[in-house]
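Support reply, case 0932

Customer input (verbatim):
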Amino acid sequence: MITARAAASFDPVGRSVATARTFVRDTLQGWGYSDVVDDAVVLTSELVTNAVIHAGTAADVLCLREEHGVRVEVGDRYPEREVPIQGAGNAFAPLDSENGRGLMLCSALATRWGVEYGPSRKHVWFQLDLPQRPVGTRSSGPVLPTALLPVADERVRVAVVQIDADNAVSTWNADAEALFGHRADQIVGTPLADLAAWPQTPGTGTGIAEALGLSRWEGSYGIRSNNGRVIPVYASHLRVRDSQGDPSTVCLLVRDDERAVLATPQRSPATDTGSENGAADPFEVFIGSPAPDDLDGLLQRTVERARDMLDGDAAFLLLATDDETELEVRATTGLPSARQRFARVPVEAGTGRYGSARMPAVHDDLVSLPGAVPLLSSTGMRSVVTVPLKVEGRLTGSLGVAAESAGRYSNEEALRLQFAADRIALAVESARLGELERLRRGSLSFLVEASDLLAGTLDRDQTLALMAQMTVPTLATWCAVYTIADQSADPYLSYVLHEDEERIDGLKALLSKIQPPDPVPAPGARIWAAPGRAAQQAALLTSQRELGLGSVPPVSSGIDTTLATAAAVGGETVVLPLVARNRVIGMLTLGKPSDDHFRQEILELAEDLSRRAALALDNARLYSERVANSQALQRSLLPPELPEVPGVEVEVIYRAAGEGNEVGGDFYDLFPIRDGAYGFAIGDVCGTGPQAAAVTGLARHALRLLAREGFGGPAVLERLNAAILDEGARSRFLTLLYGELWPQENGGALLKVVCAGHPLPLRLRQDGTVEPAAEPQPLLGVMEDLELFEQVVTLDPGDVLLCVTDGVTERREGSRMLGDDGLTEVLTGCTGLTAGAVAARVLRAVERFAAEPASDDMAILAMRVPGPPAS
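Our regenerated output:
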């Protein structure tokens, strides 16, 4: 049964793909179907791309909400497109292929999908079912004897604190005043971060702002009382919104030793009526019920329980990579969490490893084995016990507990810890695989968005900016892009971005002082230690100067920036090559702040992004070179400057259509023939591009050569016509207005013109009348035997001769066209204006005639004989 629907149509342009993705994402999130949003967006993106890019038609998207899922239909107007059918001899196209990929993704991600044909369109639909979720009580406990109930003070106080959208306290009840000593009027409006000692539980990677943004959160931290002491509390947070839709967080706080009041109780062993001894779920006994839903929460709960079970001072958990060759730190307690998170160590014995992680191990004293456990270096831990996490005999992780005293653990503790690890290994592996699947689908969606953005521009600087903005902060804390102009050039620092804008200048200055990374074409990320070393050295020298140590005099500024830069680049820094067309064109550098590391999944995603970014950057380079070449060729086809003609004002305006990557066919020229005589021309070659440019160059240079040899106008054009026809298949039609200009001593000018298929020149007299100044004759490049004639025109003082190409007269707005009549009307109002003013007014009229950019080149040549000075 359909309970809601939403529909939209998208034009056949590239930007419609991103708009369609936004439409589907907003629709499904509005319906509360966030579980299937990523899959729906990926499928919609591919199907709309097929419609608007490959089929070249509009796309219709229809979202239907059903009781157990959502159905999305994408229709195009091209029903003849072939659809591959499984099992009928037609295989799906490869993933890298453009055609068929959308249907292959439907087969992989959708619950059901299909194709429906109509007489004028085709619909591809897919259905995504919502995941099954158990319904019932979240947690409950059995009836217990009074002696087994948790102990609390005679008066249990529960502080109720409400936090507004800005993370400031908006409500502070009487129990909160009694527990912490602050009155409500003193606290309301104060950020909770100013009161909280966060985190109370070491090892958690969640900050207070993140915790307040979660829909539900439980955990321990401290609240500073009015006397400055920190009171440990156990908190339960619930995210709510009021009737106006404004979010806030309700926090229930009790003393940490009374956490049983709020904490969800562990399940006690359930009594089995069919047996004498009841059995509890070993996993829930160790982890507690309910178990955290997310992997990070489950791992954090695991290390805390392991530490408490063996009465240790610290605990850690590492997960194996896919190839089981390395272990990655994923959760710690009692250790500096940020410094060790996502660090990696080898599985087998060797330098920097304390033996094989595939077997339990007990170390009585790490002092006797310095460096045996790198994770515990400089932490004060002396003894450690580690056990493997295995699923079906395959190593999936390692769990360890450490103590500050030596000889704390024996084989008995190792067996207890191994028993617990065996009970949680399957749950951890299941949660890890679920996280990997979410990361995979999120990565696919990210790469689809990135490819769409990179394909939407051919500007080099914009491509560099997009590369950096897509990586920061999604993949890294900061990013630097180096480019290589050619194989003999050194890498050049082209773009730097940090998630904190105030760090960009210091980071750019640091990277500019060190040698760039080597342009190694080998795929994959490699560690680059130079920025970290340079930042530490700069921070050390700056600190010494600040303290007045050494021979350098102390300074009073710069230490804050230097130390902040050192912290920004103090973590792991990796370099990925940008390889396009078998050539390294640059490097993408990603960095983390102090003591932070990259996850392998992030590096793999960054590698995929770097391949797409490299191709986009190289395409932008090729496009820029093509535009530069076209513009240089276009300039070579136009005269570098116009000569001054005595007694005649001359003005030329030339506007090339398009984005500058094609050479236009319009041209003009004005040149001296002999003393007192000047030749002028304005023409239009059919088409654009190199072949049109060849005819343009031939025409302009032939006109000058033939005119200076003494040939008259008809003879010049007849010989030019023969030269064009000699080009054979490379020839192009050419419309041309050619004339000779003879300034007169009496202030006028004599013109001899030939108009070969070109828009007729218009003459504006002083009284405002406008008339054609020539008669039409056949265009060039069509017939071999042309019989052309020239016409004589006399310009009196104050008269104007206007010559244009058809880009002016054929300017369109819908079905309307400016035409000869419109140009005549514009010229009529130009009486008394200079040649420059006449040309500018004509251009302004053409631009105002239509809102869309011009689709054809325009050339305007205006010549005016100045009138007598006003008396």
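We compared this against your earlier run and they match. Two observations from our side: The CA atoms of residues 242 and 248 lie 8 Å apart. The first helix runs from residue 15 to 31. Please reopen the case if you see a mismatch on your end.
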